[in-house]
Request: fold
Amino acid sequence: MSEQWSDLLMTDHQTTEQVFEAVERALAGPGNPAPGLLTDAARYFQEYVDGCHNKKEEHHLFPLIEQRGIPRHGGPLAVMLMEHEQNRILLPKVTRLIEAYAGGDAAVLPQLRAAFGEYVALMKNHFWKENDILYPMARRVMSATDGQTVVAGIEATEASVGPDTRAKYYGLAERIIKGGGVEDLSFGVERDVMAAILNTLPVELSFVDKDDKVRYFSHENGEKIFPRTRGVIGMAVQNCHPEKSVHLVNRILADFKAGTRKVAEFWIEMGGRFLHIRYFPVRSPEGEYLGTLEVVQDATGIRALTGERRLLAEE
Reply:
């Protein structure tokens, strides 16, 4: 399935927010931040965030949704355009201070911290408004053809910047993120809390490592759809399936390892319940195969739902 316009733009947001965190960590550290990291960040903000991402919206998304009835003045679209202009006032100030610092003037650090704080506060709030307010509004007024038009416009904007624009600047972002020591969000959650989260999910999880050994399953001490005990840990996953289905298990695992399959999906009826079973390859940020995740859900109740029940209707 091809990517949607909102997925493309929101991935830009997500990547940029990690760059923000890398710079924030560098500026807040006990020592002086690495000049190279800051100059790379300034380049990313200038050339990609304002020079490419904002133009995707201004040249393609915003004009189209205006045609579909979202007013350019006096509403969310007007706010987004105004904040793009505020970005173009704040970013040059941040860039000049980074250039001064990289040139050896460490005395500008307090000014740089303050200016970057103002810039990043604007941009984080801006991204939130687009993700949660403007983009949902846009999806409601746009047709499938409109969406394809915006995707084509996004690709055209990136091509106008240069070849492989997205890969090039996402690569630059990744270097900044690594240089700033930004970790996955799970690193901020204590291990016992993470275990409790996994055991609270309304699905059962099992993880098989890259060598096809079972390494984890959730809900150990709770009621389970497919009962299992700790004795399964370390076993070859092939030994956990009936012999008649082992060849299918091996085929799925081989496809995941080769990168030719993104999901394997099954559903069965058992004991009066409708069970949805999915397998997903687990990969590192670099794309390395780490193992396979099994997700099992009792979808009986979900399957029976009709109409709608909104959050505000909850008593």
About this structure: The mean pLDDT is 93. Strands lie at 204-209, 214-217, 264-270, 273-283, 289-298.
